[in-house]
Design goal:
The protein is of the alpha/beta class. Helices cover 35% and strands 24% of the residues. It folds into 2 domains: 249 residues, Spore Coat Polysaccharide Biosynthesis Protein SpsA, Chain A (Alpha-Beta Complex), CATH 3.90.550.10; 32 residues, no CATH class. The chain starts with 6 loop residues before the first strand and ends with a helix. The structure holds 1-O-phosphono-alpha-D-glucopyranose. The site of 1-O-phosphono-alpha-D-glucopyranose has 14 residues, from strand 11 and helix 9.
């Protein structure tokens, strides 16, 4: 039977240490890019890929994510009474009626692999997507996860989103060894290793926070030992999956902003600000004046 992807897992339990003090009491996933929190960009990307069940793996201090994707009855009512139709539409649009949200608590921060495993009671044996909201991926033609879902639906094999990174940055990413080239954007993955030092990294092709994985990965994760940084790594489970079945690497079309990093976060705000339908022109003029 050909599988479709209807589940997305969002690991959102991290501490966000790099953004302290902003993340002392509120989650990094709620940091806005212009006027929309990072997590909403990721959810919208999954929705645009046809996914309707969003599974958030949360931890302490993450209640605002739950609130964000809940119906805000009082707010909506207030906006309706005051005739603020435009804002009402914005608020209602956060959670379309055909979208389901599930919240799972990751009690201990044992790593990305562990966070994904926490979603297993909901995922079961089905294939699913994983989106890391830190990685903001923008593609005007076709959202990146949709590109990857199309690859999965055609090939029925795991798909990792990858991009070329500078060699001095390999230590920040899962790095793949490419196998057979299938087309310009697609190849098989021979091996993948978490955060190798530049001098030992097998390539400069990095896994970016978008994955489409088969249900089998959950079984592997149950037995995956601690890896890099003493954490249970998703990368290690994928490395094992490669021994059982074909895993593909897809060089996605679009631009990536590393919003887990202050500079990347600022760049995303500037570029999304310039593209903003109401603000764009005025903001461009401001930047011009500033750089004079
Ligand atoms: C995680 C993954 C890593 C991947 C990266 C993409 O690392 O463990 O393999 O390349 O996301 O952003 P993190 O950024 O959580 O340290």
């Amino acid at each position: 039977m050909r599988e479709k992807i209807d589940l997305a897992v969002f690991p959102v339990a991290g501490f966000g240490t790099r953004f302290l003090p902003a993340t002392k009491a509120s989650p990094k996933e709620m940091l806005p890019i212009v006027d929309k929190p990072l997590i909403q960009y990721a959810v919208e990307e999954a929705y645009a890929a046809g996914i309707r069940t969003m599974i958030f793996v949360t931890g302490r201090n993450k209640w605002s994510i739950t609130e964000h994707f809940d119906i805000a009855y009082e707010l909506e009512n207030e906006l309706r009474v005051r005739g603020k139709a435009e804002f009402l539409q914005v608020v209602e649009g956060v959670k379309p009626r055909d979208m389901q949200v599930v919240f799972i608590r990751q009690e201990l921060a044992l790593g990305l692999g562990h966070a994904v495993l926490c979603a297993s009671p909901v995922v079961g044996e089905r294939a699913f997507a994983v989106l890391l909201a830190d990685d903001l991926l923008v593609c005007e033609q076709k959202p990146v996860l949709k590109q990857m879902v199309e690859v999965f639906e055609a090939q029925q094999q795991a798909v990792l989103g990858v991009m070329e990174v500078p060699r001095e940055q390999t230590q920040r990413y899962g790095i793949i060894t490419a196998g057979a080239q299938i087309n310009q954007r697609l190849c098989t993955v021979q091996a993948v290793v978490e955060k190798p030092a530049p001098n030992v990294a097998p390539s400069t092709q990095a896994v970016i926070g978008r994955y489409i994985l088969p249900g089998q990965v959950m079984q592997i994760l149950q037995h995956t030992p601690e890896g890099t940084g003493g954490e249970i790594q998703l990368t290690d489970a994928i490395a094992q999956l490669i021994e059982q079945q074909t895993v593909l690497a897809y060089r996605f079309e679009g631009k990536r902003y590393d919003c887990g990093d202050k500079l990347g976060y600022l760049q995303a705000n500037v570029e999304m600000g310039l593209k903003h339908p109401q603000l764009g022109a005025q903001f461009a003029q401001y930047l011009q004046e500033l750089s004079r």
